[in-house]
Design a protein that fits this description.
- This protein is an alpha/beta fold.
- The chain has one domain: Carbon-nitrogen hydrolase (Nitrilase/N-carbamoyl-D-aminoacid amidohydrolase).
- It contains 8 helices and 17 strands.
- The protein has helices spanning 21-34, 50-60, 101-105, 135-144, 160-174, 217-225, 233-236, 254-265, and strands at residues 2-8, 38-40, 46-47, 63-71, 77-84, 90-94, 117-119, 122-128, 148-152, 178-181, 186-187, 191-193, 196-198, 201-202, 207-209, 237-240, 246-252.
- The strands form 4 sheets. Strands 1, 2, 3, 4, 5, 6 and 17 form a 7-stranded mixed beta sheet that branches. Strands 7-8-9-10-15-16 form a 6-stranded mixed beta sheet.
- A hairpin with a 5-residue loop joins strand 4 (63-71) and strand 5 (77-84).
- The longest helix has 15 residues, at 160-174.
- The radius of gyration is 18 Å and the shape is globular.
- The protein starts with a strand and ends in a 10-residue tail after the last helix.
- The relative contact order is 0.15.
- The mean pLDDT is 91.
Length: 275
């Protein structure tokens, strides 16, 4: 059994600022009280403080997923997601393979690889916000052997319903537990796009989604055809946040989902990726 946490943190003065670090460390102190195994911050958070986060991970004995930001020589930024071990070491790093159209293309350097991270609890996959829009990144992680996927996001508050539906579909397609970590609700004061000056509202309503709890092919086939109302949001969304700062926690048996994925759900799957 593994206990996971989605830390729905509220950015202080926006993302990518050192002002978020003190609050991030306070939130991790709360994580320690909850005895969490793997905790994830949202996309772009806290953006600085790798050394401090490593020290805190060692203090609380948890894996931590966070985002760091570095400026490159060509004037763009490198947004790097890091996975810190309970021993306080960075054991995984990854960039963002799918930039969100024009909003990010002019700011960030894209990455061209999607790694899988080994932990004592299983293989952890991480997707960065808009990477969940497309089915391929999630499928690649599942075919590589991921046991759980964290989707760290700063998702537009006006289309949260779309984000939830995408995560539910990705979970179904891959029979995969997914931790969707969004920022708490906040408003960016000024975003220029073409001739438009925008004030986008982000965040809220993080979710932790699990597949249906079935053990074999007979259950999978018979129960829905026997009149049981399965695969509903009420059954699949294990935990859901509101719009404000909040920590979601859920316990799950990753081995149970993995065994069903490979012995039943993917059993007759012929098309596979070369990954």
């Amino acid at each position: 059994m593994v206990r996971v946490a989605a830390i729905q943190a509220k950015p202080s003065y926006g993302l990518f600022t050192e002002k978020n670090l003190p609050r991030a460390l306070e939130l991790l102190d709360n994580i320690a009280k909850m005895e969490v195994d793997i905790a994830a911050f949202p996309e772009g958070y806290p953006s600085t403080g790798e050394k401090e986060l490593c020290k805190k991970a060692r203090e609380i004995g948890s894996y931590i997923i966070a985002t760091m930001l570095q400026k490159t020589e060509n004037g763009k930024y490198r947004s790097t997601c890091i996975l810190i071990s309970p021993e306080g070491e960075v054991i995984g790093k990854q960039g963002k393979t799918t930039l969100l159209w024009v909003f990010e293309e002019g700011l960030f350097e894209p990455a061209d690889s999607l790694p899988l991270h080994n932990t004592i609890h299983g293989k952890v996959g991480i997707l960065r916000c808009s990477e969940i829009i497309y089915p391929e990144p999630m499928s690649i992680l599942s075919m590589m052997g991921a046991d759980i996927v964290f989707v760290i996001s700063n998702w537009n508050a006006n289309v949260i319903h779309l984000w939830h539906r995408i995560i539910l579909v990705r979970s179904w397609e891959n029979w995969m537990p997914i931790v969707g970590v969004n920022t708490a609700e906040w408003t960016k004061s000024r975003l220029v796009y073409g001739d438009f000056e925008l004030e986008p509202r982000y965040g809220g309503y993080s979710i932790i989604v699990v597949p249906e709890d079935v053990a074999n092919i007979d259950e999978f086939i018979v129960r829905p055809y026997s009149g049981e109302n399965m695969f509903t949001e009420e059954r699949l969304i294990k935990s859901k946040a509101g719009k404000d700062e909040e920590i979601l926690v859920a316990d799950m048996d990753l081995k149970r989902y993995s065994e069903f994925r490979w012995t039943v759900f993917f059993r007759n799957r012929r098309l596979k990726f070369n990954v």
